[in-house]
Design a protein that fits this description.
Helices cover 10% and strands 53% of the residues. It is built from 1 helix and 6 strands. It is globular, with a radius of gyration of 13 Å. The mean pLDDT is 96.
Length: 106
């Protein structure tokens, strides 16, 4: 079994100095924590895998293709592989669980 505590993941992510901290990888999927500070720009580009975002904390918006949506704790967003997408208008630090299926290749 693999089990994780969000607080520990946040500490590991902060220590890494990176916005994204992958903490589980299997051939069928990978899972990470993505943290974007308030006012920051999201540097990601489209991925080769489908992904799901689950917002744990914070507030902002996500643009997928030409569609914008407000995100806040409890928001769940599915993004198809190769779809252009970015978080923006981040007013409170976003803490987001990210599920890639299959495992992220990049």
């Amino acid at each position: 079994m693999h089990a994780f505590e969000t607080l520990n993941l946040l500490i590991e992510q902060a220590k890494s100095g990176r916005l994204y901290h992958e903490f589980l990888r299997q051939p069928s999927m990978s899972l990470g924590l993505y943290v974007l500070p308030a006012g920051s720009a999201d540097p990601q580009s489209p991925h080769n895998e489908d992904e799901v975002y689950v917002v744990l904390a914070g507030r902002g918006q996500i643009r997928v293709g030409a569609e914008d949506r407000v995100v806040e704790p409890g928001s769940i967003v599915f993004v198809e592989k190769q779809a252009a997408h970015k978080f923006h208008s981040i007013t409170e630090e976003l803490q987001v669980l990210v599920f890639f299926a299959p495992a992220e290749s990049g």
